[in-house]
Specification:
The chain is built from 11 helices and 18 strands. Strands 8, 9, 10, 12 and 18 form a 5-stranded antiparallel sheet that branches. Strands 13, 14, 15, 16 and 17 form a 5-stranded antiparallel sheet that branches. It has a 4-stranded mixed sheet with strand order 3-2-1-4, covered by helices on one side. A hairpin with a 5-residue loop joins strand 6 and strand 7.
């Protein structure tokens, strides 16, 4: 005997056009269309040709068998865009975080990289949840998970956009994070409009967890990019000393030992960008005039020569380079606590017209926690007089040895928003060494000076010096001449 009560009840469509199907008082599923309803009923044993308009078989609420407001193409397009955006953001976060997580020098920078990798994992889970959220929403928390993934994408995109605006340099990542930033804004609007968090059992705790995670991530990034690199001190010990000279057994020369020494006594390893030691002999004319006015005149003349300390009784100083060379070598690393010493012997004629002999040791470096130098490229010297040196060839520049290599910031978050910088070191035995860091996209000399100063500070580049001076009389005396 057939019951008067309808076997099938089709509820009114929800906000997405999905209609709940109840059979015998139990929910058996949801249908987007009449075709899906027939398939569902067919699996339950109903005939394929069931007359769905027969009130004795199907009860329609909130519309009849023709009321199916779902726009399948629109819903699927939104779902595809949501999933694609989350997967793209996942890949971006992984690309940013993995180099730091696996190879950053400091613990804080590794933690920052790990956070980006973990946030990428969350976005991957959110992309899978978006398939359920755009479908029948069988998992109650899928909307909240998608919302969390989109919030992470928005936070990452906003941070990258903020950092990019500081320099406004084109990088391939701009074509990724800018569209993702706009995508996250639009997706967030849709999720908020639909109140995607409604399925979470305790939405307040969920919101508190999101805020706490965002704060911890922000503090970690601030610590790793600003405070920690600036807080670690840099200390160098640098010495240059003359040894006891010896007269050559055959030639009329005096052999003078020279010891150069350095030690990284700070808390950060460094790259040596450029270094040079230069031994010079000083010749001078001494006063022949005993009257006071001549001494005052010589004092004034001496004060204006080479910007050096004023000295009485001497004038017309002349410095002659006796020996010059690299100390440690451009591109080499000096780790924490590492020390290095070099011993050299140079020769002086016994009748040299010098009154003093001095050595000047200069070492330029950059902090290893601020950047990663392409050492293989940088250690290769280029000679300005060599016609095969390409763009480094300069016949009018004199005999210069040029070192050039790319440097990347040690925080990969910076690398994706800025073009790489290049370290250039110029060495010559007859001129002061030059060390520079720039992007080579400056316009005019003033822009270059500003950019170079900014980049030197950004990468923690600096120079340390040591010098010593001894009288030629003392060297000759110690050699027995």
């Amino acid at each position: 005997m057939r019951s008067i009560r309808p076997w099938v009840v089709v509820e009114p469509p929800d906000s997405r056009g999905l209609r709940r199907v109840v059979v015998g008082g139990e929910t058996v599923g949801r249908a987007w269309s009449l075709g899906e309803l027939r398939k569902m009923l067919g699996r339950l044993g109903y005939p394929e040709d069931l007359n769905v308009d027969d009130a004795a078989s199907v009860s329609w609420r909130g519309g009849d068998s023709g009321t199916w407001p779902d726009r399948a193409w629109r819903r699927r397009a939104v779902t595809v865009l949501m999933v694609a955006g989350l997967f793209a953001s996942m890949a971006l976060n992984a690309a940013i975080g993995w180099p730091d997580a696996s190879g950053a020098l400091t613990f804080a920078q590794r933690i920052s990289g790990v956070l980006f990798v973990l946030s990428g994992v969350v976005q991957g889970v959110a992309a899978l949840a978006a398939l359920d959220y755009g479908g029948r929403r069988q998992f109650k928390a899928s909307g909240a998970i998608v919302l969390l993934g989109v919030l992470i994408a928005l936070a990452t995109g906003s941070l990258l956009l903020f950092m990019w605006l500081e320099e406004m340099e084109f990088t391939p990542y701009v074509l990724v994070f800018m569209p993702l930033w706009f995508w996250s804004l639009c997706t967030l609007f849709l999720l908020v409009r639909d109140k995607s968090w409604k399925g979470v059992p305790q939405p307040k705790r969920f919101a508190a967890g999101v805020v706490a995670t965002a704060l911890l991530t922000g503090i970690s990034l601030a610590y790793s990019t600003m405070y920690q690199p600036a807080a670690a001190p840099m200390h160098f010990t640098l010495r240059a000393e003359f040894g006891k000279s010896r007269a050559d057994r055959v030639l009329p020369f005096v052999q003078v030992p020279l010891t150069l020494y350095m030690k990284n006594t700070g808390g950060i390893p460094v790259y040596i960008v450029n270094d040079i030691y230069t031994v010079r002999g000083r010749g001078a004319e001494y006063s022949r005039y005993p009257d006071r006015r001549a001494l005052v005149r010589e004092w004034s003349e001496r004060a204006g020569e080479r910007g050096e300390e004023a000295e009485r009784y001497v004038s017309r100083l002349k410095y002659t380079t006796v020996s010059s060379g690299h100390f440690y070598g451009p591109g080499k690393r000096l780790e924490i606590g590492q020390e290095y010493s070099l011993k050299r012997v140079f020769q002086l004629p016994k009748d040299a017209l010098y009154d003093t002999v001095s050595v000047d040791l200069r070492v330029s470096y950059m902090r290893k926690d601020r950047g990663k130098l392409d050492v293989d490229e940088f250690e290769t010297p280029h000679y300005s007089w060599d016609k095969e040196a390409g763009r480094f060839h300069c016949s009018a520049c004199g005999r210069l040895v040029i070192y050039h290599g790319m440097v990347r910031h040690n925080n990969n978050l910076v690398n994706v928003t800025r073009n790489p910088r290049y370290v250039t070191a110029i060495w010559s035995p007859v001129r002061d060494p030059i060390s520079s860091i720039s992007a080579f996209d400056f316009k005019g000399e003033s822009d270059f000076v500003k950019e170079e100063k900014r980049e030197l500070e950004r990468y923690g580049a600096a120079e340390v010096r040591a010098n010593a001076e001894v009288s030629l009389a003392e060297l000759l005396m110690s050699s027995g001449v």
